[in-house]
Design a protein that fits this description.
14 strands; 3 helices; three-stranded antiparallel sheet; mainly beta; Pnp Oxidase, Chain A; about 40% strand; single chain; globular; Rubrerythrin, domain 2
């Protein structure tokens, strides 16, 4: 028997892994399974789902970056990079970033690693990229975001392509307020009455139409 709740006690960070495609378009996705392998030479590993466009791009150009996100990062950045695809969306539009060695780097990270792929390991659903760190830059004395913080404070959830995704648990709602859940990112918003017409999801930026009302008399799902 595997109790998947045990995995919730792993320590996860929240990162942006970026690269570029064959047209030099910047691409990227949210990752939380990133770890340092050795300090000398400096190497890290990152796990990315096969379905992510970023996975394909890294395999082609053998380069990637890992941006460490602080707790102060705009939640909409996580929503854009975590719940949309670089195949059909310019995720970098409207955010501050620059290029180092041809790789896109967001300005609001509290540290960035620039890596060259030296090995890979394939699982049924993910590729684990082993990267040699060539540059480490942008260190800031900010508190790095953890997945627990993202989950508990920002009320965000993992997309199904994330290594840390766990099937949602059911719990009965007992609240005087009406709850609405975003179909895109799973964010739950409580409000007296109806959602305002101009309401936008603070996590993924989706409009009111992306929210479903959760009835108080039935079970709702939370990750």
């Amino acid at each position: 028997m595997i109790d998947k709740n045990v995995f919730r006690n792993f320590s996860y960070g929240v990162y942006l892994t970026t690269s570029y495609d064959e047209n030099n378009k910047p691409v990227g996705c949210v990752t939380n399974s990133v770890m340092q392998i050795t300090s000398e030479p400096s190497t890290v590993a990152v796990s990315i789902n096969h379905e992510n466009y970023t996975n394909q791009c890294i395999k082609k150009n053998k380069k990637f970056t890992v941006a460490i996100l602080p707790e102060t990062i705009q939640p909409s950045i996580i929503g854009t990079f975590g719940y949309q695809s670089s195949r059909n969306v310019d995720k970098f539009e409207g955010i501050r970033y620059h290029y180092t060695n041809g790789l896109p780097i967001i300005e609001d990270a509290c540290g960035v690693l620039i890596c060259e792929v030296i090995d890979t390991m394939e699982t049924n659903t993910h590729t684990v990229f082993l990267g040699r760190v060539t540059i480490a830059e942008g260190y800031k004395k900010e508190v790095p975001m953890t997945y627990r913080y993202y989950h508990e404070k920002l009320k965000g959830s993992s997309p199904k392509t994330a290594p840390s995704y766990i099937e949602e648990e059911k719990e009965e709602i007992k609240s005087a307020k009406t709850k609405y859940k975003c179909r895109i990112c799973g964010y739950v918003h409580e409000v007296d009455g109806e959602l305002p017409d101009d309401y936008m999801c603070p996590i993924c930026g989706q409009p009111k139409s992306a929210f479903d009302k959760i009835e108080e008399t039935k079970e709702a799902t939370f990750s």
